[in-house]
Specification:
CATH architecture of the largest domain: Alpha-Beta Complex
Strand content: under 5%
Helix content: 55-70%
Shape: elongated
GO molecular function: ubiquitin protein ligase activity
Distance between the termini: 116 Å
Domain HECT: 803-1147
GO biological process, one term: protein polyubiquitination
Strand order of the largest sheet: 7-8-10-9
Number of strands: 10
Pfam family, one: HECT
Function: Probable E3 ubiquitin-protein ligase which mediates ubiquitination and subsequent proteasomal degradation of target proteins.
CATH class of the largest domain: Alpha Beta
Amino acid sequence: MDEPRKHQVSLRGASAKEISRDALLAKVSQERELRNFTRRATSAALFLQRVWRRHRAVKVVSMQLQQQWLAEMNQNAICWNKMQISRIVLRPFIFFMTFLSTRYQRIETREEDCVKLCFRVLLESINSTDPNENFCSLVTGTTEERKIWIYQSKKLILLCLLILVEVDYTDRGLQDVGVVSLGMRLAVLLTDWKGWKSITERDTQYADAAVKNLIWFIANKESGTYNSIRRYIWKLDPVPTQGASSCRTDDRFLITASALTLALRPFHFRDTAGTGSGVLELQHAAENYFFFLLTIPWFSERLPMVLLPALKHKSVLSSCLRSLLISKDRISKEISEMDRLEIHLQSKKMPQVAWALANIIFLATSSDDGAVSSGKFAPGLDLVAYVRFVIILAENLLACFGKDGQVRFRNQEIQVDVDNQVDPIGMGLLESETTCESLKMSYTDLLKPVCQQSHLLGLLNLEKDISGRMTDTHQSSEAPMSFELLDVAYYYSCMIRIFSALNPVLGSLPVLNMLSFTPGFLSKLWEVLERSLFPGRSHDAKDNSFGNDISKSKDDVSQRKQKWCAKDRGNKWVNVLHKFSGNSPTESSKMNSTGKSSFDRIRDQSSSVWDVEALRRGPVGLSKDMHCLLHLFCAIYSHLLLVLDDIEFYEKQVPFTLEQQRKISSMLNTLVYNAVSGGVSPHNRTLMDSAIQCLHLLYERDCRHQFCPPALWLSPGERNRLPIAVAARTHEVLSATVIPDDASAPSSMAASVITLTPHVFPFEERMAGEVVGPGPGSVEIIIRRGHIVEDGFQQLNALGSRLKSSIHVSFISESGLPEAGLDYGGLSKEFLTDIAKAVFSPEYGLFSQSSSSDRLLIPNTAARFLENGIQMIEFLGRVVGKALYEGILLDYSFSHVFVQKLLGRYSFLDELSTLDPELYRNLMYVKHYDGDVKELSLDFTATEESLGKRHLVELKPGGKDICVTSENKLQYIHAVADYKLNRQILPFSNAFCRGLTDLVSPSWLRLFNASEFNQLLSGGNHDIDIGDLRKNTRYTGGYTEGSRTVKLFWEVVAGFEAIERCMLLKFVTSCSRGPLLGFKHLQPAFTIHKVVCDVPFLATLGGQDVDRLPSASTCYNTLKLPTYKRLGTLREKLLYAINSNAGFELS
């Protein structure tokens, strides 16, 4: 607006700067709010003044009343009657004590004297037999008198609880402890009418009703009884303080016993009152007892040992558990909310549900002397209520740990400050950060009862008793049995996951050890799974001859094991293991002898037979019950497989027959394949981890000693298997999207079908992934025939991954002259095979042969003492990698144990038989030894020989001083096996693997098992298929398949020994093994070229034939065969040529 018009008057008579309507309304509203605020502030100030004046007035009155009360009590040292006690003693006392103590939440010295005086008067009155003098006789009077007594008794109990919490229990507050002792005695007497000496039989009804009213008041949460007792117990040390005075100890014991008596009053009163009354109040008492007391860290450890039987009495613990089950949904919700808040505020603290779980297990199982290792249940305990409520707590605890079953505060130290006051619901774990780890282990000690066999047997006997009662009442027994067994399965499935989360070192080992060796438990789990997953199939031992026929195919190993097992020393162990499956040895042998199906019939069965229909969706389609059973079964059986040797598995067939083993393998194979194909969710992680471990153990055992048909392992992928190239690409994408440091990501998310279950892809598909031929570029080397190893190491070892390029070899003969011929691939093949032959020879010292009948190669432990020994082994890894990279077959196979290391896998005890059968037999002798193992004078050491000297190696720290006993013999056996199979050859396998992976991808190698790796390396069979070779042979130079010389050639080759045929193949192709997939894949193709040699006709009639020898062009896989006329001449010349170790020179 222009400046001259700024103050113009409008035609409406108002200024041009007038306020708008909205602004005017806002201003009015603001003024109105200001007036209202002023009015409220004034009213509040007046109210505060009135409250403060009233407070001061009441305070003055209370102090005056206290002085008058003290004066009257001191002057009238007479026996008070019940009405005088109520009106003269208690009424003013409750008034001024409620104001002076409750308001300030502390008790001064003057109030303490009043409390002592009042409590002594009341105790004397209650102990009086005169009804007129006994204060508690008011309950037998008029209705008004009973109301007065109940009101005053409630106030007295609240005052006693306040004193219990606020008094100083240190040495400085020793005098105050007496006040607490008096108060707790009074509170106990007030809640037990049997201690009132003036009550007669006709008055018990009134007394019982009054006490009932008082006890239900205690049970109510609003009274704060359990909260006060919790705060008191929290101050008690988990371990009794040393050097405490006997007087103080006696008073503290009396106070603790009285406090627990008050806490347990509702349970005992409900137990004696009969049914039909106080159900709701008992429910409140159980909930308060659980939330405020059972969630105290080290609750049982803080209490005197003599008080523990009262806590685990059936009238307390069983009643509490049954009541808690009624409101389990509300309790679970409240626990979850509290723990969620606790973890959010203080992530270093153990959730309170963890302490409730540990305390309940301890009270339900500990013996009277407080031994935490006892697994026996308390007498009269309601086991059904116990199991079901523990499952609820365990599931809530696992929810606090996270969906993946891992502790949310995994990477943080867990602590607690016991000495500081905490919120009544505040939870902690330990006293300080410095002792966190050791006391964290102490928490798991509270759960040790579940690791005892007597604990599990008690639950199994319960299941048996319930099913028996159902049978006696002519009801269906199948459902109760399954339900009760499921309860046990849920119970231990949760415990396994809790132990794994809390103890990263031992994990669930204590629980699995007990479950694995409990007779009949594993077989019961399998029976339920078998009925569900294999409906309609026979459960006998049919097709068992499959295992027998396979055993016959392993003549050497099987016969040795049978001879050894025939001895009596193994019978006891075998009989124990037979109990696990519920079968006797005679039943097992009978099943073996009565099997009617043959190996061939089972081997040729369709893959669909082994594809379990119920598991085709993986864990997604499983019910919660089946999910739990599978997890528990896989966890137990994968643990048991670690200690089962081949004798027990194949010959004695414990804990399962071979037919059952095949069903288990097919179940796991189908589950894992379909789970990984569809993606593993965090919810299914624990199940899949156990299933994958169990599957791998069974598959590795089948690879060493077959018990499953090949179709079983291929079966899950027959219907919807992706091409291996697509599976490999999927794995690359998954690996790229998972953050390596993300601990919350499940382990299976980065895995895929091709890494977890590569066996579902046929061997031919897997091996086609890496054999690609020479890389770009070339490397020229000159090799002396007499120094092939030295020259190769010097010229090729430093190349590393550049060794993928083509190698052009020029040989120098032993006479020092260059050999004829150009290298178009054949000479490089010859070089690789010759250097492998030289270095893998035991005489060279780098590798030795295993003591088994197969005589497979294993690194020589003395190689580290040789010059450049480790470097030479690394170079050998590159040589083998070059052969694998270009598809060149070598004449050597490695030991199963060594290949396991190259593939990044751990070797277990049962694999020792393939490396050192004698040591394996000796360890089995120790395992099955019936006497005292100390008689064998063994310790935890092993002897290693190198360069003629013996070295003592300790299997564990201080092993030479640890004697092997019957208790630790399994540890000794596995320690020896671990040293021989893993630790001893680890430096050599690492060096070899470094060279190998320079040329071959480790991820590709892991697609194969040990046998398949050797097949990749050497082609497996030591003979060639003449029919396949003849079918894929080309003829040049004038030869045809019908030529006379060609017919004579194939007749001669057919008459060769296997080794001679291999030598012929090496002569032509520089490799004695045929291609893995047949001669169809030999490039260039095997070729017979005609070499025309004219012989005069008369010379032919005189028996003369061609004198020229056959020659070869290994670069082109071509045999240059002269036109021989006679069979004998062709055979003689061909044998001479292939044994001359020459090629081009023969031309």
